[in-house]
Amino acid sequence: MKTVSLIAAGLLCASLSTSTLSADLTAGAKAAQSCMMCHGENGLSKMPGTPSLAGQPETYLISQLRQFRDGKRHNEVMNVIAKPLSDADIDNVAAYFAQFEVELKRH
Ligand code: HEC
After folding, report:
1. Atom 14 of ligand 1, nearest CA residue
2. Rounded to whole angstroms, what are the CA distances from 35 to 31, 39, 94?
């Protein structure tokens, strides 16, 4: 029983890290520079109406960027920004913002 759960945990780790490993974080960091004027430094937004990207799940960022690009999610600004992005561009920039861990503290 113990062996089975260890193997399962190993498989889970392997599958969780796959997408990040295939993404190019250097390219993602470069692309992310143009996002930060709206989404904030390192993707932590201070602008009303603009969500934070830092620490959001990679799969969520990828799906939202594809939806903006493909016109399935509507926002005047993001539709224009996402339009020229390839799947690889999206994977890279999503991996960049997803790599941050956001800590919550109650005041
Ligand atoms: C000119 C300002 C601006 C720039 C530059 C910009 N964004 Fe956005 N972004 C927005 C706004 C505003 C929204 C909120 C859209 C909405 O309300 O649906 C948004 C939403 C998003 C979302 C959805 C987040 C969520 O929580 O659902 C993602 C993902 C995103 N942007 C990624 C990016 C990336 C990646 C870049 C750079 C390549 C970028 N944005 C550049 C303004 C900007």
Report:
1. 50
2. 7, 6, 11
Write out pLDDT tens, residues 13-59.
444 444 556 899 999 999 999 999 999 999 999 999 999 999 999 99
Q: Would you say the CB of residue 77 lies under 6 angstroms from ligand 1?
A: yes
CA 64 to chain centroid: 9
| C-alpha 41 to ligand 1 mean position (Å) | 13
Tokens of 65: 């960027």
CA angle (19 as vertex; 18, 24 as ends), nearest 5: 115
Measured in angstroms, how far is the CA atom of residue 93 from the centroid of ligand 1?
Answer: 12
With bands split at pLDDT 50, 70 and 90, how would you rate the model's confidence at 3?
low
